[in-house]
Structure formats: structure tokens, C-alpha cells
Amino acid sequence: QSRTIALMNQKGGVGKTTTTVNLAAAIAQLGRRVLLVDLDPQAHATLHLGVEPAGGESETPRPSVYDVLLDPAFPAESALRKVRDNLWLLPAETDLAALETELAAVDPAQRTTRLRAALEKLASSPIEGGTGFEFVFFDCPPSLGVLTLNGLAAAREVFIPMQSHFLALQGVSKLLETVALVAKTVNPRLRVTGVVICMQDTSSRHSREVVQDLVDFFDQARAGGQDVPWKSARVLTPAIRRNIKLAECPSFGQTIFDYAPFCPGALDYRALGERVVAEWDEL
Amino acid sequence: QSRTIALMNQKGGVGKTTTTVNLAAAIAQLGRRVLLVDLDPQAHATLHLGVEPAGGESETPRPSVYDVLLDPAFPAESALRKVRDNLWLLPAETDLAALETELAAVDPAQRTTRLRAALEKLASSPIEGGTGFEFVFFDCPPSLGVLTLNGLAAAREVFIPMQSHFLALQGVSKLLETVALVAKTVNPRLRVTGVVICMQDTSSRHSREVVQDLVDFFDQARAGGQDVPWKSARVLTPAIRRNIKLAECPSFGQTIFDYAPFCPGALDYRALGERVVAEWDEL
Ligand SMILES: Nc1ncnc2c1ncn2[C@@H]1O[C@H](COP(=O)(O)OP(=O)(O)OP(=O)(O)O)[C@@H](O)[C@H]1O
Ligand SMILES: Nc1ncnc2c1ncn2[C@@H]1O[C@H](COP(=O)(O)OP(=O)(O)OP(=O)(O)O)[C@@H](O)[C@H]1O
Ligand SMILES: [Mg+2]
Ligand SMILES: [Mg+2]
Asked: What per-residue confidence (pLDDT) applies to B85?
């Protein structure tokens, strides 16, 4: 059994990649086996971990999540790269954008579930020192297209990274509609279980009000008793403070724990990682 | 004659809307006639200025940039809203996303130039107290689709708002390719003339290194002598500092000058506005 979480938000630049990488790394440092799947044609999670993505100008012919999505028979374990102790990466490549077009030609019933099928096989595959993974994180692109849909179909949970700004609230309902659609059509077990507040600027009153709006929204969904996929969603703590070190370390291909293991950004992601693991262990 | 500038970056959350709104507002406060065109189905610029966008759940049947894009005969001046002294808005609406599909059915030769045609008519239209506008700003969505292409076809200049972070550099070449493509096919006069550094965190060394990378890149393009559309691009000053007030004022439908006219965000956008006007006056 494993905890599989898609980090999703169609808005750009909200902290999806920073959260996927550093949360995955935090949990790997706690000794759990973690897989990070990079679903974004920007390949930022891949770069962040110090791996050069294939595709584009790159000469690197290595396999990527692209191959997994295009070919149901492709052995996903051959695309895995071990990037840290306990941490594996299924990298993206920068031609992934062309994939959306190629996948459009695939039978609709299969188009969004290829990743899930590949991961189910991986779950029982022997991989250096063990079988499968205890935690799987999907870094989604800033869109609601076929790559994100594959992530939503393959995961059991959704975490929404977002900023505590007024304009950030505007996109949430559309995001939840998409989750509801995937839950209804291909993945009935899908649940939004968390919101990660990213890049929080101290705790200005504005920021607290936006967080309160979110908390109220989820409380109302629970009180309303409807069976919506976000009825068990919570705003996770701690919020991740804005910390320039988190923006610097990708340029060195490092996680925050490689770069500055005791800075505020590291403290926050470590604490979040401990909580994600503790919740899982309690179940 | 007017200075027409598209604020463009396919990356999300980099400061396009905040810059379009506050730069337009700064220049309007200097007494110049300014039009802001909201090209984004998120309608954030429209919201930021305190206007309720049409579309979606809204009952408001008002005309928007949508009508201008779908119907060449539509009188654009009927969609204008005066939002401040000297500042007019051509609002977006939240159904604009469906527009991309509808426009896909339009003849390719026309599909990306509808906005330009409408603006050419506006330039000679009598509009309350004057004719046309001296400055026109286009707030583009975070994509390289038909809405952004309409903005690029209609403008003579591109400003690129971006953060001075490593990951922000990764998307720049793709952005420039798109500008080059539009310059080659539909708008030979299109030039990237500026980069606006947004949300700068103090001046960390990382931030200065990223800015230096950009400066070097444009210097090399100039020195190389090729006729690329970014050969006269400069990193504009001042950089816009991170200032929570800039994130708060959209929730009140206010520009930074309405909300906190002497905070750092206001000082920076006012200074940038003065520079944009001064450059124009010198020509
Ligand atoms: N807490 C933080 N403090 C400072 N900078 C941050 C923080 N979180 C993220 N950043 C920076 O903000 C930028 C956007 O973050 P990130 O790339 O994680 O967002 P994203 O949602 O994955 O973006 P995209 O939509 O392009 O995939 C990056 O340059 C990142 O380094
Ligand atoms: N200098 C700044 N200081 C603090 N917050 C800022 C600053 N500039 C922008 N923001 C906030 O950052 C968020 C993203 O900014 P903005 O909406 O302008 O980006 P965008 O590029 O238009 O995003 P999108 O791609 O979604 O259109 C907003 O919540 C905005 O209020
Ligand atoms: Mg990302
Ligand atoms: Mg915007």
C-alpha cells in the first residue's frame, strides 16, 4: 500500500514543483521509499533534482515519463533514476508538450489512464532494496490537460499548492470541478486531502483572511454532507514561508536539504513531511 | 501615434496582471490617455480594477473583448469602460476560454489579427474628451495560444514580466521564439523592448545573477548584429520589489495608487511609469 499524491494547480508559479521536490525529499530523509513523477514538459522537478532532462536540444536519449505515456508496454522501471537515498525520479523531458498532441490520437478510454497502469506494475516491481514505493508524488503542469489528468487518474489524493492571495482564490473552483470530473469518470477514489500554502509573506492579515476563506469553504463542504471529493480537505500546516533559498537551490540541482538544511524553507518542508508521514502511519 | 505594449509571459504568476494594471494606472495618473485590454479568461485585470467580468455565473450581459474577437463588425468602443481618470478598460469575461475553440474555426489569416483590426478603428474614434489613446497595454494569459497571439499581433512592443529566479529563465527562449514567429508572419514591427523584474526579493545575489544573465543575453544579441526582434530589449529599471500591498489591493478592486500610494510597490510602479512615458516623449 502506498500514499499517492498529485500536486496540482492550473495556475502557474504557485509552488507545485518546489513543494513536490522538497516534500518528497523530506520524506525520503525520514527513511521512506519515495517516487517523484515529473509530468511537466518544463521538466522543472527534473532540473531541480540535478537531472538533465532528455528532449529538445539535449543529446540525452534517456527514457522518460513520455515513453511510459505513449507505450503501454514500456517498462517504467527502466526510466527510473535514483536521485537521493530513498528517492527515485521518473523524469520528464522537454518534448513532453508534443505528447499532448500525440496522446490526443489515443483512444479516450486509455488516454488518461496510461500512467496509472504503469504505476500499478511498478508497485510490485523489485527496485533496488525493496518493492515499489511507500510514497508517490506527481508534479503536474500548470494546466488541466491530458498530462494533469493522467496524474489525477493515477493518484489517490490531491494536494493543492497555492499562495494566500486574493487572485489565487479565483482559480480554485475550476480546479475542484476538474477533480470532481476525474473522480466521477475514471478514479472514484480520488480525494482532495490538502492545501499547501506556499510562499507565505510573514502572516499579513490579508494572508490570514485568504487562509480563513479556504478553511471556511472546506468546513462548509463537510457540514453540507455532500459526497464531494474535497470533503476531507484541510489546509495543511505549517504554511511554507517565503524564503529566497527555496528559489536559489534549483539552480544548483539541489533540494533545500542539500543546499541549506536549517533555513526556514527547510524547516517548513521538513515539518510538512513529518506530518504527511505521521498521518499515513496512523491509518 | 501611440505606444502599444503587450505584457507577455507564458509562465504563470510572474506579475503580468499586476504590472499591466499598475503601470497603466501610473501613466494615467501622469495625465496620459491609457487603454488596458484584458485578454485573459481569468479576467484578473478586470477584477483588479474593480469591474465584475461578464460570463460564467455572472448575470452581467455587458460586452467584452470576446465580442471584439468573435465579430469583426462589433464596435469596440461600446465595450470600453472608463475605470479611472484617463484610464479605460476593454474587459475580459470568464467565458473567454471557450473563445479559443471558437476562434479555431476562423480563417487562420484572420484568427490572430482581429484585435489589431479593432484597435486600428479605435485609434481614430472619438472617446470622451479625445481621440484614441496614447498608451495601450495588453494583459496576456499565461499561454502562447490564440489570445496571446492576438495581443502580439496588435502591439508594437512586448514587455516580459518575470521573476529573477533560476527557474524563471527556463521559459524565456520559448517566449522569444513565439515573438519571432509573430514578427515573421503577421507583425513585422513587433519588438521586445523590455523585461520587467517583478516581485524581487531584496537584492539577493541570486537575483542579481539572474538579472545579469538576462542583461548579458540581450547584449550578446545586440553585439551579434542579427535582426532579432529582441535586439533593442533592456531589463527595465526599477525592478519591482516584493510588497504585500500589491497582492492585497486586487481584493478591493483597487490599483496600488488607490490603496497605498506611497508604499514601495507604488513607488516602483510610478517610477517605471515615468520612465515608459519619458522614453516615449524622447522619440
Ligand atoms: N516558499 C518559497 N519562497 C521563495 N521562493 C519560492 C518559494 N516557493 C517557490 N518559490 C519560487 O517561486 C517560483 C515558482 O515556484 P514553482 O516553480 O515551485 O511553482 P510551480 O507552481 O511549479 O510553477 P509552474 O506552474 O511553472 O509549474 C520558482 O522560481 C521557485 O523557486
Ligand atoms: N511585487 C509584488 N509583490 C507582492 N505580490 C505580488 C507582486 N506582484 C504580483 N504579486 C502577486 O503575485 C500573484 C501573481 O501575480 P500576477 O497575477 O500579476 O501574475 P500573472 O503573471 O498575471 O499571473 P497569471 O499567469 O495567472 O496571469 C498575485 O497574487 C499578485 O497579487
Ligand atoms: Mg512546476
Ligand atoms: Mg495575469
From this structure: 97
Which grid cell sits at A220? 462548509
Nearest residue of A to residue B203, measured between CA atoms: A244
**Percent of chain B at pLDDT above 70?**
98
**Is A33 in CB contact (< 8 Å) with chain B?**
no
All three cell numbers of A87? 528517492
CB < 8 Å from B in window 69-108 of A: none
Report whether pLDDT(B150) > 80: yes
CA A250 to ligand 1: nearest atom: 31
CB-based contact B228:B253 (threshold 8 Å): no
User: What pairs with residue B54 in β-bridges?
Assistant: B93
Q: Please give the distance, rounded to the nearest whole angstrom, from the Cα atom of residue B166 to the centre of ligand 4.
A: 21
Nearest protein Cα to ligand 1, atom 23:
A13
* pLDDT band at residue A54 under the 50/70/90 scheme: confident
Average pLDDT for residues B12-35, to the nearest whole number? 98
Instruction: Give the distance (Å) from ligand 2 centre to CA of residue B253.
Output: 14
What confidence tier does A9 reach under pLDDT thresholds 50, 70, 90? very high
Coil, strand, or helix at residue A225?
Answer: coil
Q: Are strands B81-84 and B87-90 parallel, antiparallel or unpaired?
A: antiparallel
Q: How many CB atoms lie within 10 A of CB B145?
A: 16
The reply to whether A165 touches chain B by the CB within 8 Å rule is: yes
Residues 6 or more apart in contact with residue A158 via CB below 8 angstroms? A5, A6, A8, A152, A179, A190, A191, A192, A193, A194, A229
Q: How far apart are CA A170 and CA A11, in angstroms?
A: 10
The DSSP annotation for B49-105 comes to TT-PPBSTT-------HHHHHH-TTS-GGGG-EEEETTEEEE--BTTHHHHHHHHHT
For the beta sheet containing B135-139, the strands, ordered from the edge strand earlier in sequence to the opposite edge, are B81-84, B87-90, B34-38, B135-139, B3-7, B157-162, B191-197, B234-235
| Ion ligand 4 contact residues with beta carbon within 5 A | B 16-17, 44
B35 touches B90 (CB < 8 A): yes
Which residue from B minimizes the CA distance to A252?
A: B166
Assign B57 a pLDDT band (cuts: 50, 70, 90): low
Nearest CB to B171 within list A42, A48, A207: A42
